[in-house]
Structure prediction request, 252 residues.
Amino acid sequence: MAIALRALVEEADRYLNAARIQDYCPNGLQVEGRPQVRRIVSGVTASLALIEAAIEAEADVLLVHHGYFWKGEDACITGMKQRRLKALLNNDLSLLAYHLPLDVHPEVGNNVQLAAQLGIEVEGELEPGNPRTVGLVGALAEPMLASDFARHVQEVLGREPLLIDGPRTVRRIGWCTGGGQGYIDQAIAAGVDLFLSGEASEQTFHSAQENGVSFIAAGHHATERYGVQALGDYLARRFALEHLFIDCPNPI
Prediction:
């Protein structure tokens, strides 16, 4: 079955309520390809490797979390950007990208999907009432040592995380996928035992140690693989389309 590209984009925009969120890049259709859609390929970042894999899979739409045209980037279409856009346009492949709307969505968002993978019960927002905070807070069903939870994260995500140990026992957890390490202060204020993000900054070590909380950096890419898969599955069910997630490994 095929549907119009416009219908797919309108539904994704609506479902994610993309227009309401101020972001660092345009959300939605970033590159327009063929007008009819039968197959979606999803992935984390619209790298050339993912584009080539989507072309090989005969996709009509490439759905990603990290797309193009970020604020402050050079607008010239040269080098890496030229090669990526040329591959999309030469193959009539549409690029559909959602950044913050995919982080915060209550059903397919990166943060709720990561919680489901790790067995964390979501309790609410990391900083209730602040629309610019995308992280969440929740709890484990049973307390465990921070080192044991880190091993659990490694088993689930397939990547050894960085652990800054704090309290021996962890139950209450705050988290923000990707580059959300800056939310550690909000997590500390929320009274968590452990804060988890994708990346770490130099000051994250000191914030965790001096405030007596554990911290895990589990990988930007590794923590953000699940939202785009869930969104692709939703769109495939909604329109009876084919959907394939392709994971291009990234150690960061």
Notes: Residues 3-98+224-245 form a domain with the Udp-n-acetylmuramoylalanyl-d-glutamate--2,6- Diaminopimelate Ligase; Chain: A, domain 1 fold (CATH 3.40.1390.30). The radius of gyration is 19 Å.
